[in-house]
Amino acid sequence: MIIKKKRNQGFLVLLFISFLIPVTVVGQQVKNIVGTVTDGDTGKPVEGISVKVKRTNAIVFTNTDGKYGLKANNKDVLIFSGTDYQTRSLVLGTKTVLNVLMKQKQDDELKLVDIGYGVIRKRELGNAMAQVRMGDLVNIPVESFDQALAGRLAGVQVSSTNGQPGTTANIVVRGNNSLLKSSTPLYVIDGTALENPDLGALNPEEIESINVLKDAGATAIYGSRGANGVVLIQTKRGKVATSIINFNAAAGFQQPVKQIEMMNPYDFVKYQIERSGNQAKQIYTPAELATSDPLYVASGRKLEDYRFKEGIDWQDRIFRNAPIQNYNISMRGGDLQTRYALSGSMFDQEGIIVNSGSRRYQGRVSLDQALGKSARIGLTLNYSRNTRIGEAVSVDGSNDFSSYVLYRAWGYRPISNVRGEDLTAYNTDPLYSTPGTIRINPEVAALNAYRHSNTRNLFANTYLEIDIVKNLQFRTTGSINSSKNRLEIFNNSLTPQGNANNTLGVNGTFGKIEQRDLSVENTLTYTNTFEKVHNLIVLAGYSYRESQDEVYGFSSSNLPQEKLGIYGLSEGIPYDGVSKGRRYAFKSYFGRAHYNYKSKYLLSATLRADESYHFAKRRALGYSPSVSLAWNMKPEDFMGSLKAISASKIRFSFGATGNNRIEAMDHDSFFANSFVQGGDLSDLSVLSWTNPYLLWESTKQLDLGYDLSLFNDRIGFNFDYYRKVTGFSRYYTGMATVKNSGFEFNLNTVNVRSKNFSWSSNFNISLNKNELLELGKSASAIHSGVTSTTNADALYISKVGVPIGQFYGYIFDGIKQTGEAQPGFVKYRDLDGNGIIDDNDKTVIGSSLPIHTGGFFNNFSYKAFDLNVFLQWSYGNDIYNANRAVFEGNPAMNDVNQYADYANRWSVKNPSNEIPMTGGAGPDRFQSSRFIEDGSYLRIKSVSLSYSIPKNLIKPLYLTSLKFHVSGQNLLTFTNYTGLDPEVSARHSVLTSGFDYSAYPQARTISFGINAAF
Question: How open is the CA angle 202-377-346, to the nearest 5 degrees?
Answer without folding.
Answer: 20
